[in-house]
């Protein structure tokens, strides 16, 4: 991807500086850094970056200040991609973010270990994709619900949808399942139809399908 302009918000100075250094070395530009949510919103308004990276828990209370800031940015600057970092898999907060539209990512801090994978996640979110941490996907899948909206899907379609929920592209799904990209496309078309999702842009229907998957058993 071309050079990204990024704003970082993280109260852990070492982590923030480490992320900034990684982005700089990878050819991207960190246009601002903040140690609290208020500073993040101000920087986003001023610079209108391609992407903001924010921790959910920030000063002063270390509860949901980062999440609140993410919602403000999404409302005022919907074109800005948002990647939220969290120490824990918080189902409720993740669902709120995913429901807010395209260009959203939710990643556990413990996943920031594979540099290439992390950079790929940032670029996908900046391009408008939605990325969900696999640990969160597993947690949500384990929750039992009385009504299963995925009941009509075949086992293979469920596999494809689970990988979609991890933010993988059709090509990435094909590599993971050892099938052709054309076969993946057929499975995607089929599962979108079976889920009876409203007609919309393909990317938006994929996001809706992922939300349906996350809300199911």
UniProtKB/TrEMBL annotation:
<dbReference type="InterPro" id="IPR001789">
    <property type="entry name" value="Sig_transdc_resp-reg_receiver"/>
</dbReference>
<keyword id="KW-0804">Transcription</keyword>
<keyword id="KW-0805">Transcription regulation</keyword>
<dbReference type="InterPro" id="IPR016032">
    <property type="entry name" value="Sig_transdc_resp-reg_C-effctor"/>
</dbReference>
<feature type="domain" description="HTH luxR-type">
    <location>
        <begin position="146"/>
        <end position="217"/>
    </location>
</feature>
<protein>
    <submittedName>
        <fullName>Response regulator transcription factor</fullName>
    </submittedName>
</protein>
<dbReference type="Pfam" id="PF00072">
    <property type="entry name" value="Response_reg"/>
</dbReference>
<keyword id="KW-0238">DNA-binding</keyword>
<feature type="domain" description="Response regulatory">
    <location>
        <begin position="5"/>
        <end position="124"/>
    </location>
</feature>
<dbReference type="Pfam" id="PF00196">
    <property type="entry name" value="GerE"/>
</dbReference>
<feature type="modified residue" description="4-aspartylphosphate">
    <location>
        <position position="55"/>
    </location>
</feature>
<keyword id="KW-0597">Phosphoprotein</keyword>
<dbReference type="InterPro" id="IPR039420">
    <property type="entry name" value="WalR-like"/>
</dbReference>
<dbReference type="InterPro" id="IPR000792">
    <property type="entry name" value="Tscrpt_reg_LuxR_C"/>
</dbReference>
<dbReference type="InterPro" id="IPR058245">
    <property type="entry name" value="NreC/VraR/RcsB-like_REC"/>
</dbReference>
<dbReference type="InterPro" id="IPR011006">
    <property type="entry name" value="CheY-like_superfamily"/>
</dbReference>
């Amino acid at each position: 991807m071309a050079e990204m302009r990024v704003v970082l918000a993280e109260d852990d100075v070492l982590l923030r500086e480490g992320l900034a250094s990684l982005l700089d070395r990878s050819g991207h530009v960190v246009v601002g850094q903040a140690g609290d949510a208020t500073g993040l919103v101000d920087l986003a308004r001023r610079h209108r970056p391609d992407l903001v990276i924010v921790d959910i828990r920030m000063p002063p209370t270390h509860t949901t200040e980062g999440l609140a800031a993410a919602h403000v940015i999404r409302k005022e600057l919907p074109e800005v991609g948002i990647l939220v970092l969290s120490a824990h898999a918080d189902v409720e907060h993740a669902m709120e973010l995913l429901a807010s539209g395209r260009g959203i990512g939710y990643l556990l801090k413990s996943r920031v270990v594979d540099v290439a994978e992390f950079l790929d996640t940032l670029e996908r979110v900046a391009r408008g994709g939605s990325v969900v941490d696999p640990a969160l996907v597993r947690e949500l899948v384990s929750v039992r619900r009385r009504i299963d909206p995925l009941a009509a899907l075949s086992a293979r379609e469920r596999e494809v949808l689970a990988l979609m929920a991890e933010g993988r592209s059709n090509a990435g799904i094909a590599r993971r399942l050892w099938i052709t990209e054309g076969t993946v496309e057929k499975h995607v078309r089929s599962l979108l139809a079976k889920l009876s999702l409203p007609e919309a842009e393909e990317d938006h229907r994929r996001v809706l399908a992922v939300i349906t998957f996350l809300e199911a058993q």
